[in-house]
Task: inverse folding
């Protein structure tokens, strides 16, 4: 079963999926964050099993461990991690949060 949150990371410089990127999904709770799930991207740069099948509405944070990914490849990076905060709304069954990554830039969007 696909989880409520999925992601896909592409390494724009190497032109390949970014395999093995560490992921942490958290929910904003009061003055802090409550960890919901952790994982890694697969060989295709995807994670389809990050978190439960349903999430409560609220603001969530997805952190990509990009520094570890680039270090493992022997490449320097400006961003030790990429952090994306987004809202989960009532009645939405799926959120896809991809990133296009390079050592010195990244972009993201709400995928389908």
Result:
């Amino acid at each position: 079963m696909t989880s409520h949150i999925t992601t896909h990371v592409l390494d724009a410089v190497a032109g390949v999926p970014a395999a093995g990127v560490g992921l942490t999904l958290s929910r904003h709770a009061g003055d802090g964050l409550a960890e919901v799930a952790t994982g890694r991207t697969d060989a295709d740069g995807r994670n389809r099993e990050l978190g439960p099948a349903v999430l409560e509405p609220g603001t969530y944070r997805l952190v990509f461990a990009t520094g570890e990914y680039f270090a493992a490849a022997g490449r320097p990076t400006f961003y030790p991690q990429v952090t994306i905060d987004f809202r989960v709304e009532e009645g939405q069954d799926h959120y896809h949060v991809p990133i296009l990554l390079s050592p010195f830039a990244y972009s993201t969007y709400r995928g389908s």
